[in-house]
Design a protein that fits this description.
The chain is of the alpha+beta class and 469 residues long. It is built from 17 helices and 20 strands. The model has no long low-confidence stretch (mean pLDDT 95). The structure holds flavin-adenine dinucleotide and FE2/S2 (inorganic) cluster (2 copies).
Length: 469
């Protein structure tokens, strides 16, 4: 069971009222994309009495420019940030950090505000926003306040946010044209990997010399840390190889990494130095945007990646029916509001094409389209789909004709046991809706969040490319 009550407010004021009223009773949580909340619940975190789902509040998923500051709404997802021209032009380290989060399906639901609120020292957007000198604005029925990052982040997964407060804005000054920055992450694989160490670097130049330096590292201390000694080593100097070596060596003064399942403290120390050097070399050589594909794969099909607002406010007690447009038909799933969308589709809708591989966002076997956007059903509450439109693999064929991706998978032998196949098909069909003739590179990006343990990926990629032909 996800929670006893699931509240879908219609406006920010309603959300704040609900937070205040239920916070007084204890055990209330906000849920946005749910990509952290549902994993925590799956791993045994205490069930909240009430979840307040803010993910369909209108107008809060925009990146805007006001008074020389860039404002990121609390519902801006990582993929929306990657697609934002303002972030691309003025906040390159943030774009790179958002692009490194999870997989396309995670980036289509996970928000930057949720990333900050979770406050894991490994979270990727925090160092990037930190070097951009970002602030967070919190709102509650008691009013608003704005905090700097050092004021907001208090420790491992601890922030200054009170239980009845919501992040309503993340904002930072437009950097001067003389500033440039970058972000680098090292994980154990290319997608779906928590940072072993990450770094964001922002430098402002006076001619060729560094006027101001900001360096923030993640996964090397209980919170993200700035590296003041390394920053000081750069200010007033040219970015020569010797100067870069000095700065890289001095990040050691800021970090206290620990041994854990992913890496030893000694390895993290080594990595911190290596990626500081790499980041500074990129900036010295002007290579920080090298290799970036201008039109990255989003897996948001024909949409622009923005979800429609909720049709009406609702409070769904556990075991309520959930009504949605499912594969084109208006359907009511009984006794479903306390389930994940994955369980509701399988156990109440009898759509067993949606598979559970991991139940925590790692394998992509449960990929479905929510209002046209690829998401993971295991990390989506069924109640989130109330009044929305969902498409599963059962909904792809039309008039007894398979979707071209289904045909190509069958013809090319891109299936062995078939367990992962519905997830791959949904991601691939979403890619084809987004760009009808994908390249092999684009096909690889599209299925970065889908794991197959037996076919191997060659035939799968070939089938996707062929489907586009
Ligand atoms: C498979 C997988 C891979 C991942 N990979 C990465 C990765 O590579 N890098 C990375 O940094 N993260 C990663 N994550 C973590 C997660 O996706 C991000 O932290 C995401 O940004 C969380 O946003 P959300 O909207 O889903 O948050 P939710 O899960 O909805 O909420 C997370 C927390 O934030 C609170 N919250 C949400 N919105 C607000 C708000 N506006 N105001 C106040 N509190 C709020 C919630 O109450 C909750 O405590 C991964 C997660 C999964 C499952
Ligand atoms: S990602 Fe949902 S079951 Fe694995
Ligand atoms: S075909 Fe068996 S897991 Fe992919």
């Amino acid at each position: 069971m996800i929670s006893s009550y699931y509240i879908i407010p219609e406006s920010l004021d309603e959300a704040l009222d609900a937070l205040a009223a239920h916070a007084a009773l204890g055990s209330t949580r906000l849920i946005a994309g749910g990509t952290d909340v549902l994993v925590e619940l799956d791993q045994g975190a205490p069930r909240p009495r009430t979840l307040v789902d803010i993910s369909r509040l209108p107008g809060l998923d925009q990146v805007t420019l006001q008074d020389d500051r860039i404002h990121i709404g609390p519902l801006v997802t990582h993929n929306q940030a990657v697609a934002s021209p303002l972030i691309r032009d003025h906040a390159w380290p943030l774009l790179r950090a958002c692009w490194e989060v999870g997989s396309p399906q995670i980036r289509n639901r996970g928000t930057l505000a949720g990333n900050l609120a979770t406050a894991s020292p490994a979270n990727d957007t925090i160092p990037a926003l930190w070097v951009l000198d970002a602030q967070v604005t919190l709102a509650s029925v008691r009013g608003r306040r704005t905090l700097s990052f050092p004021e907001f982040f208090l420790g491992v997964r601890r922030t200054a946010r009170a239980e009845d407060e919501m992040i309503v804005d993340i904002h930072f000054p437009v950097p001067p044209p003389t500033a440039r920055g970058t972000f680098i992450k090292v994980g154990l694989r290319r997608a779906q990997a928590i940072s072993l160490v990450n770094i964001a670097v922002w430098l402002d130049f006076a001619g060729e010399r560094v006027r101001e330096a900001r360096i923030a590292l993640g996964s090397v201390a209980p919170t993200i840390v700035r590296a003041p000694a390394a920053e000081a080593a750069l200010v007033g100097h040219l970015l020569t190889p010797e100067r870069i070596e000095q700065a890289a060596a001095r990040v050691q003064e800021a970090i206290q990494p620990i041994d854990d399942i992913r890496a030893s403290a000694a390895y993290r120390r080594h990595l911190a130095e290596v990626i500081t050097r790499r980041a500074l070399e990129q900036l010295a050589q002007g290579r920080e945007r090298e290799g970036w594909v201008e039109d990255p794969v989003m897996l948001w099909g024909h949409t622009d990646g923005h979800y429609p607002p909720a049709p009406q406010p609702q409070t769904l007690p556990a075991h309520s029916p959930v009504t949605l447009r499912l594969n084109g038909d208006l359907i009511t799933l009984p006794d479903a509001s306390h389930l994940t969308l994955l369980d509701a589709l399988r156990e109440r809708g009898f759509l067993t094409g949606v598979k559970e591989g991991c139940g925590e966002g790692e394998c992509g076997a449960c990929t479905v389209w929510l209002d046209g956007i690829s998401v993971l059903a295991c990390l989506t509450p069924a109640a989130r789909a109330h009044g929305a439109e969902v498409v599963t693999v059962e909904g792809l064929a039309h008039d007894y004709r398979l979707h071209p991706v289904q045909e190509a998978f069958a013809q090319d032998g891109a299936v062995q046991c078939g367990y992962c196949t519905p997830g791959f098909i949904m991601s691939s069909a979403s890619l084809l809706a987004e760009r009808p003739h994908p390249t092999a590179e684009e096909a690889m990006q599209a299925v970065a969040g889908n794991l197959c343990r037996c076919t191997g990926y060659t035939q799968i990629i070939e089938a996707i490319v062929e489907a586009g032909q």
